[in-house]
Input
Amino acid sequence: MPSQPPDPSPPGSPDGHRVVIVGAGPAGLTAAYQLGKAGMRSVVLEKDDMVGGLSRTARHGGYHFDIGGHRFFTKVKAVDDLWHEVLPQEDFLTRGRMSRIYYNKKFFDYPLRAANALFGLGPWTSFLVLLSYLKSKLFPVKDERSFADWVSNRFGRRLYKIFFETYTEKVWGIPCSELSAEWAAQRIKGLSLLTAVKNALLPQRTGGDKGSVIKTLIDSFEYPRRGPGMMWETVAEKIQEAGSEVRTGADAVRVLHENGRVTAIEAAVDGHIERITGSHFISTMPVRELVHKLDPPPPAEILRAADKLNYRDFLTVALIVDNPDLFPDNWIYIHDPDVKVGRVQNFKNWSPEMVPDPQKSCVGLEYFCFEGDGLWTMDDKALVALGAREMEQLGLLRAAEVEDGAVVRMAKAYPVYDGEYAAALAEVRRWLDGLPNLQLVGRNGMHKYNNQDHSMLTAMLAAENVLGARHDVWSVNVDQEYQEEITREEAERRAAEIAALEATQPKVPVPLGAPMPDPMRAVLRYAFARLHKAALGTALGTVGALYVLATTAWVLWRGGPAVEMYLGLLSQYFIGYTVSWTGALIGAGYGFVWGFALGWLIAYLRNLSLGIYVQWIHRRAEAASLGNFFDYI
Ligand SMILES: Cc1cc2nc3c(=O)[nH]c(=O)nc-3n(C[C@H](O)[C@H](O)[C@H](O)COP(=O)(O)OP(=O)(O)OC[C@H]3O[C@@H](n4cnc5c(N)ncnc54)[C@H](O)[C@@H]3O)c2cc1C
Output
């Protein structure tokens, strides 16, 4: 391929700026769309032959399928507004979500419910499950470090193996005994427990109520009638209507920089290299790739740090099935250890328009893998045959009904958070900070395991930065000065949105050995301070002492036999007390002792009752959050 080619870039906006964006997934397209609305032209380079990234909708013979089904759900108004600005309301379907767990030829409710699980497992297995639960209560794993220990201690080993182990290991390819308990605990910490305690102690506010966020996420969501690709293809059209470019089949291969600024990107297009210059650059490509594409290359330690960023890959096998009605779910989690498939989507149940012939169905079988492993390298025909065989083995369809199939491989579908990633990413970021006209946004762009809305928000902030704002994209922090005219209420609403945004993002497993904060203690510290027994005792003791002293002094000063008589009765409780100056001092001593004892007791009882209450909420929150755990994988 020839290098140093001419610059075919489109003209920039009238003030001469040109923004070059790598990747036409939700993040890259959102950035270009927002810039276009502000009159700033950009060019989006996409290496694939279609837009949408992980949120694309693939097509095969008139059938549509996603890379996993994509729910449109957000608590961020700006994101929701963009979606509805791009597609009219009639293009959105509101779907009541239905998904179940499949295990041992039976379906179980999802989110998990104890009675349904026990009933479905049958009397003998349920008995064993109860025994194993009792064992976990009587003899819990003392040093609860792994995800396996954590769940087993709460549900018993047997239930853990049925409902947690197989699917988690399929998704991440790591034994649950090597995943930190923090992964499960962080869900509780961030959501239900905190919310429950706050709701119990403070007046309820609807804006940032994360409990309701989760419920909504589970119960219903929006979905474009021809899949998420419909959204992203329309955004790409609108970007081009605004005078910018979206170039598919353009693989960014080199990121040129000089004197602390990125100057151009070279892209491989149709077998030759094109150089696209610009004043601002936004990258959504995986951080590891970006670092290796820098020219001149960064120091060796930065390249080594980038190499420590790892990914889990993914492939979808779509099967076209000659059967109009396979099962009612949007998707099913496959907990059966005898098959490799992890999750099955029934796209017809997402939207009837995903299937051109109502007599047929289109199912998407999700296989989690590593690039280059046995599944990844298997040829498409063999994968379609494997999918059909496994579906028959599960009893979900007959292999003979499968008429056709297609495979989409998605490398780097999941950024992995292993023991080394955080330090490595921080090191890479520090170095990239030296190139201030290059912004990293999106899921792989920031090595952040997030949903569309989070990717889009980072892109919106980056676009505003190009236009003069100074948002911190990494902490999704909004620069209030830039939004001069917003009111305090508006600022508070946005802060609540961002908190809710974080709460709805998936959680990535953390390996053993990563620091594990105690969620309970964090919440206790946050929600209420424990009363200090000695401090409250001293305070009430002092009040008691002063009260007796002042009352006696007042009687001594004012005199009067009746009052003196009543006060004298105190001597029955305070031995040695008399209505005299000496008695006042003795009474003050008694007042202090009784006041101290009362204060100490109040503090003790209050701490104890709140402790029991929080413990109770904690247990409930754990059970609830594990019930919908896979929503966040
Ligand atoms: C199985 C699965 C299910 C999901 N379900 C949901 C869901 O229900 N709801 C939801 O909101 N989110 C969901 N997500 C997350 C969602 O897909 C992502 O958050 C979103 O697509 C990220 O957008 P992005 O633009 O940051 O990255 P991507 O979608 O990864 O897009 C990046 C783009 O950059 C391109 N690119 C990379 N390198 C180069 C290069 N060198 N040159 C040119 N182009 C390049 C890629 O080809 C890609 O098109 C799901 C993800 C997965 C994997």
About this structure: The chain has a mean pLDDT of 85.
